[in-house]
Design brief:
The protein is α/β, with parallel strands linked by helices and 258 residues long. 40% of the residues lie in helices and 17% in strands. The termini are far apart.
Length: 258
Amino acid sequence: MDGSSAPAGHSKVAMITGAGSGVGRAAALALHAAGHSVVLAGRRMAKLEETAAMAERGGAGILAVATDVSQPDEVKELFAKTRNEFGRLDVLFNNAGGTAPGIAIEDLTYAQWTDVVNVNLTGAFVCAQEAIRLMKAQSPRGGRIINNGSLSAHVPRPHSAPYTATKHAITGLTKCISLDCRDYDIACGQIDIGNAVSEMSERLALGALQANGDLVREPRIDAKHVADAVVYMASLPLDANVQFITVMATKMPFIGRG
């Protein structure tokens, strides 16, 4: 089945979590500009409304839903509103994420650990569950899930155990969705992002701790470059998939890191 071909009168529908800033905002605007109807999900409605106000076509085809992905009931409500508004979902970009203070492992509290796990991993899992249910049931069947993995899915930064552990786990989740859902015309891929401009990466421009103890100002790239890659992944027919892609600042210390 060609997932890039929509039924008559149908605009492909994309949902972006963490759509209120950074990579999520850039991806939402790029997908909307490419012709998708978009569902903006994030904890801060004011930020989602800012994203919607930046969109082309006067913001037509945009649904903003305040959602904390760490709360399963809120995720269910998000997908119910999506189904009621658009009738289907073609793309889920699992982008929402958070991190913990950069401190020694033994000094992290249980709450700091679980806060990151609940958003980065469990939130992505619950959103994927709801997307799979909808994508299996809709007609035409199928869709695409894109998970935000991060370079931390490959190698850690110092003092990043919760974030790195969840991003390694996202790789396993991506592979499981790809395997378990391919018979239902659901494709799943992962985008690993290195130093895109966002609120989370502001500290990197000021000086990031390296494995040797040095503080180094790291280069960053415009989030538009990441958004362009997401649009490409979303544009493929469902018999083709970008399983893993890395988009990063050329001169950041990733190759050789650690």
